[in-house]
Amino acid sequence: MAISNEYIQQKLTEKFGDQVFNFEDTYGMLCFEAPKDLNLKVLQYLYDEPSLGFQFLTDLCGVNFPENPNRELAVVYHLHNLVENTRLRFKVFTPVATPDVFTATQLFSSANWMERETYDFFGVNFVGHPNLKRILNVDEMDYFPLRKEYPLEDQTRIDKDDEMFGRG
Amino acid sequence: MSDHNITLAEDAIERKTTTINLGPTHPATHGVFQNIMELDGERVVSSDQTVGYIHRAFEKLAERRPLYQITPITDRLNYCSSPINNMGWHLTCEKLLGVQTPKRVDYLRVIIMELARIADHLICNSIVGVDAGAFTGFLYVMQYRELIYEIYEEVCGSRLTTNIGRIGGFERNFTNTAFTKLEKFLKEYPVALGELESLLTRNRIFMERTIGGGPISAERALNYGFTGPNLRAAGVDYDVRVHSPYSSYQDFEFDIPVGKTGDNYDRFLVRNQEMWQSMRIIQQAYNKVQEFKGTDAEVYHADVPEYYLPKKEDVYTKMEALIWHFKIIMGEVDMPKGEVYQSVEGGNGELGFYMISDGGRTPFRLHFRRPCFIYYQAYPELVKDSMLSDAILTMSSLNLIAGELDA
Questions:
Q1: pLDDT band for position A152 (cuts 50, 70, 90)
Q2: Average pLDDT over residues A73-84
Q3: Do A57 and B377 lie within an 8 Å CB cutoff?
Q4: Which of B91, B94, B222 to probe by mutation at the A interface, max A CB count within 10 Å?
Q5: Which of A115, A153, B200, B256 has the highest CB neighbour number within 10 Å of its CB?
Q6: What ipTM did this prediction achieve?
């Protein structure tokens, strides 16, 4: 009964033309992206259009791709149509220098903390968010720890004097 | 929740509110939760939560670890039902790697996951009882959770943070002792669950305390991203086991209990009913497992040499096994490129794993969709205008687990 990925793609292309692109089928889940200023329009359309009805925000998170110039940060939405039981993944990319993305809190109350978490770890500035401050980290923190520029310790480093664990 | 409000004329008395700080380590909140509440007498006017006290940066840690080293991290999310987290993680890896698990492995996993669900719901429901004033039930059912933990112990060697199973199956076959313990549990537990129900379900004090406390409508619950028993108590029959079956859940016959008002009492009833359904599933799975005879009954993992550790005696005697052993332990196996989302029905909702692999040896990005984190946002709305003691009850009936909330 599920809505087919082709149908979703066709409806989106009808509505937004070539503004929605990079359609992919990842392990059965439709995945696509749109420019970041269109994110609310796309989410609203997916929510309102009766034959689509993606009204449940399963997940919202950030990803950092330091190697993509002007597309360093991504915000990933996982949406679910609970009635037809269809899921999709929608992404917007933003440059790390101007990480402004519109907030989805007007549409989904659940987006509130998930956006705060994304801000906390990636520094995505959600424009219009009612309470955009850090959530899991301390307020005094002055960097965004999940960005790739902050690596964890390399487990193969050899400059440590540690005889007990074979590094010495 | 009975109402005995006296209507006063405007300005008859001077109204004053009090701000209190509940938590982060308050004896009445089970876990590390801080709430700053504005009280009018004993009534909650508004509240604001602070989370993150036990944040351990799991998502960052996971970016530097080979897949098998991430399993112990998932243990520490919802530590009341670690096996479900472990299985969810294995399923995610298997989806990415394209591993097909044998039916027997699926059924054994279902047994372990449903046992974990019972352990999770049992804690939650008996704690709701504690907060309503019935401590005995909680202490009494602990010995039945102990039976579940003994089964874990027999299967994987540990009890709370289990690290159970491997990519492709289990680390060893279930022993006869494990099955004997399972039979003992299947025989003894329904009696105890019946006793817990007869202690609380129709108990006047318990009903008065819970009915109408912390209610939420189906629309609000969906908008707040509720999943699991909390969503079902509001009347939406969404269950990942049915909607996106994993680990052969489609082979089982079970019902999804739903509530109506989404209040504390409905959440309690839904969890209780789910435990009965879990018993049904375990019994069916156990019957199916027993149908495997001879060499089929020896199957406990899929054939994935790149990720499943070879037998120790092979490591010492065979070159190939030695090489694989070394490569797996050192995390030197490259993963396929891809992006995968896999969810399982955890103890308190849809537990999702979103993994991006860039073809390296560790995930490029791993995100946990933690159900607690998402639905705890609704807490101020749930407890607004309720009594402080009912707010405590609402918190425990939501089954908030600090480890999962803070990741």
A1: confident
A2: 94
A3: no
A4: B222
A5: A115
A6: 0.90
pLDDT tens column, B236-253: 999 999 999 999 999 999
The token pair at B152 is 């874990």
Identify the residue among A76, A85, A110 best suited for mutation to test binding to B, counting B beta carbons within 10 A and taking the highest.
A110
Task: Check which CATH number belongs to the domain holding A103 and give it.
Answer: 3.30.460.80
pLDDT digits (tens, 9 = 90+) for A108-134: 999 999 999 999 999 999 999 999 999
**Residue A135 included in any domain:** yes
Structural domain boundaries enclosing A27: 5-148
The per-residue pLDDT for A168 is 43
Among B57, B223, B238, whose Cβ lies nearest the Cβ of A145?
A: B57
pLDDT score of B177 more than 80: yes
Q: What distance in Å separates the CA atoms of residue B107 and residue B89, rounded to the nearest whole number?
A: 17
Q: Is the pLDDT of residue B13 over 50?
A: yes
Mean pLDDT along residues B299-308: 92
CB pairs under 8 A between A and B: 87
CA dist., res. B175 & res. B147, Å (int): 16
CB contact under 8 A, A82 and B238: yes
Report d(CA B406, CA A110) in Å as an integer.
16
Tell me which chain B residue has its CA closest to the CA of residue A84.
B243
Global pTM value:
0.92
Q: Which of 26-85 (B) contact A at CB < 8 A? A: 51-52, 55, 57, 59-61, 63-64
Q: Is position A114 within any domain? A: yes
Pick left, alpha or beta for residue A17 (phi over 0 → left; psi -120 to 50 → alpha; otherwise beta).
left
Contacts of A56 in chain B (CB under 8 A): 222, 225
The answer as to whether A129 is a domain residue is yes
Domains and CATH numbers, chain B: 58-406 (1.10.645.10)
B341, containing H or E segment:
strand B338-346
| DSSP state letter for B277 | H
Question: For residue A95, is it within any domain?
Answer: yes
